[in-house]
Amino acid sequence: MVKPKKALGQHFLTDENIAKRIVDSLQNNSGNLIEIGPGKGVLSKYLMENKDLNTYFLDMDTESIEYLHDNYPAFKEKVIETDFLKYDLKQLFGEDQFNIIGNFPYNISSQIFFRVLDYRNQIGEVVGMIQKEVAERIAEPPGSKTYGILSVLLQAYFDIDYLFTVKEGVFFPPPKVKSAVIRLKRNDVEKLDCDEKLFFKIVKAGFNQRRKTLRNSLKAFEFELTDEISFLLTQRAEQLEITNFISLANAVKK
Predict the structure, then answer these.
(1) Is residue 66 in a domain?
(2) Quick one: average pLDDT of 29-48?
(3) CATH code: domain of residue 75
(4) Do 180 and 201 have their domain in common?
(5) 2 pLDDT exceeds 90?
(6) Is the sign of the CA dihedral 125, 130, 136, 142 positive or negative?
(7) What is the CATH number of the domain that holds 246?
(8) pLDDT digits over 97-145, tens only?
(9) Sheet holding 31-36, edge to edge
(10) Domain that residue 238 falls in
(11) Is 211 exposed, middle or buried (0-12, 13-18, 19+ CB in 10 A)?
């Protein structure tokens, strides 16, 4: 195998067994799919074998795009040189459902998941390999020091499975940390039982000053106080469950 050059904070997977295992972790094997950061196609070639998948490959590295064009000419029209974080995905699928897979660049993995939240009503499933500590944070339950903004927001809309850990030696260049593969599957919550924009703001504000009680970190909001809300405001953000944040959002004075 020709070793690819590192680009854009990405560590390229070189182990075929791990690549196949990631692709096999995608439970929805038909319909629309986006692969983020295909690089030299270690996942892509397995995805291309599935004729039931309408897969698009999005990468912003010119060298990777040229490699995919040259080595997989039949899929040339499906390979798009663009920044996933800025690309309007409705250009590909309109209002239709789609799924996402990829070995996500470490330096933008959190931003990718915030983008997933933007399209949460169209995305059915996400399988991604990311830095191990980020994967653990996303899947973490309330009460943990690593439970944070992405934990709450993603768990509100997705069922999350931490699938397996990946060691450093299967990448080029090897990262300094372990990686992990996680799977997100859209749950049955079509809409939270509150103002969702307000919910997002409260979650972010609470964790931005996570060492403070919510009474201090949420000073910008005025609440209708009940016994429940008064108690919640004595807690720190990491101690609250999703339903608690919903209660706070509903208690904000209009």
Answers:
(1) yes
(2) 96
(3) 3.40.50.150
(4) no
(5) no
(6) negative
(7) 1.10.8.100
(8) 999 999 999 899 999 999 999 999 999 999 999 999 999 999 999 998 8
(9) 79-81, 53-59, 31-36, 98-103, 123-131, 179-186, 158-166
(10) 196-251
(11) exposed
